[in-house]
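We read letters as residues; the integers encode the fold. Take this protein.
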Amino acid sequence: MFIFAIIAIILLIVMRSVFKLHREEFKKTGKHPKGHFMGQGIAIGLPIGVAVGVATGNMGVGPAIGIAIGVAIGAGMEKKNQDKIRPLTEKEIELKKKSAIISSVLLIVGIGALIVVFLVAK
């Protein structure tokens, strides 16, 4: 279980650096990076999908439905707020690449740890 706590802490550190950079750029430009409103839309749609999954008794399909709803909401929000969107800076692009690599490695480590915990429990 210790490994899962370490993974969560590393993810929080990565997220903090991403949010800090976005906040600094927003203070400079007054605009959000491309994809900002899409993320908000997904964050709105996912709980809706989970609720649908619970209501229908099919938790496997609920989050997928929620993400689809969220993408639709996010696309609408991006279109509506197009004047408030700016392209990603070079720093943001680089940080996004590093974040994707770190997240992928942590996902693989987490799955490996989960398998080990499952096998030890048998």
In short: Residues 35-86 form one domain. Strands lie at 32-33, 85-86.
